[in-house]
Amino acid sequence: MAMKVIVVGGGAAGMMAAGRAAELGAEVRVLEKMNQPGKKLLITGKGRCNITNYGERDKLIKSMPGNGSFLFSAFSAFSNYDLISFLQERGVETKVERGERVFPVSDDAEDVARVFRAYAEQRGSRIITNAPVAEILCEHGHVTGIKTAGGKIFPADKIILATGGASYPGTGSTGDGYTMAEKLGHTIQPLRPALVPLETGEAWVRELQGLTLKNVAATAYCGAQVLDKDFGELLFTHFGVSGPIILSLSGKIAAALAKDNSQTVQIRINLKPALSEEQLYARLQRDFTEFARKQFKNALHKLLPQKLIPVVVGLSGISGDKEVHQITREERRRIVQLLLDLRLTVTKSRPLAEAIVTAGGVSVREINPKTMESKIIGGLYFAGEVIDIDGYTGGFNLQAAFSTGYAAGTHAARG
């Protein structure tokens, strides 16, 4: 007799779990609260879908600062290379971009979502939309089914909880999975935003709204302690900063602010990381020699984006009207230091609802890392962001969703 499996949530992890369980002979139902599955998948990678990362397994684990080691078995059972092959076999070719990020050649997330819907449905899964789940039912420490918000009961031998996190609630990730798991006795590690833009205290940041800086280095500090560092692209916004390197730093910054908000958290930006201090000084000196008779505010256009020049001039404390040949050696050194160490004070992260990923969730200590089954409730499995796992930007979080979904689907179907 086929195992009756209910998957709660039709996102990346849920659809993979459903397809895999059905492939192994289980009778599968997917209960999705939204009017279609995969809504969050459609907006990943700005709609292009950063499916995974092409790095080796060790890189994937190191790029999951939220309990990456927990994923060793899941990444081994269904790797990033397995995922790429899985998609190619179903007509979605992929390409590798900067940072080993993997995207569909079409740059269309809908192509990826379509594959996973088809995988689940063609293997026999029944997808029921507009079906929010209110409660997981248990008897004698084992799941027996679920009750929907409308009061309907679906019996089940196994349940896979793949409800996502608490970010982007418009896609259905409203945190209800945490409530269900907690009611069954699971520990929920405190939720906080990961991969989220940051608000800063400096008024001049607003003048730079919309400016993107490429190939810059950023280091996050809590007091004198280095939290993390990254290299790449940064975006100024009306409230602070965003962009890939800020999103990567944001998890540890949010954790530091949550732990002790009396500490000063700073981001120090090196605008010219390819140059040493002496090399940058020499470069500045060449420009100043060329523009010796110009005003300071008109002599930085070869070195900086136009929008950034008035800010740097203001922060340097040197009059923008001062002629370049009058700028002293000490003032030139000050300019160089500013370009190598532009400082921002982080006041807070943007709300959890705006985060790409939720950090925190169901404690990994209460989940079998090989099977994704609960150590507390028999027949209950977890997959994806509902678990206390989170990674950097670059395809790592989606790979974790697919790998944990594969593991949960495999072992739920096998009993």
Plain-language structure description:
With 415 residues, this protein is an alpha+beta fold. The chain folds into two domains: 4-192 and 358-414, 3-Layer(bba) Sandwich (FAD/NAD(P)-binding domain); 197-349, Helicase, Ruva Protein, domain 3. 31% of the residues lie in helices and 25% in strands. The chain is built from twelve helices and 19 strands. It has helices at 12-23, 39-43, 57-62, 72-77, 80-89, 109-122, 176-183, 244-259, 277-290, 309-316, 329-340, 396-414; strands at residues 4-8, 27-31, 52-53, 94-97, 101-104, 126-128, 133-139, 142-148, 153-155, 158-161, 188-194, 198-200, 212-222, 225-236, 240-242, 265-270, 342-349, 357-362, 380-382. Strands 12-15-14-13-16-17 form a six-stranded antiparallel β-barrel. A five-stranded parallel β-sheet has the order 6-2-1-10-19, with helices on one face. A hairpin with a 2-residue loop joins strand 13 and strand 14 (225-236). Helix 1 packs parallel to helix 12 (396-414), helix 9 crosses helix 11 (329-340) and helix 10 (309-316) crosses helix 11 (329-340). The longest helix is centred in the last third of the chain and has 19 residues, at 396-414. The protein is elongated, with a radius of gyration of 25 Å. The N and C termini lie close together (11 Å). The mean pLDDT is 95.
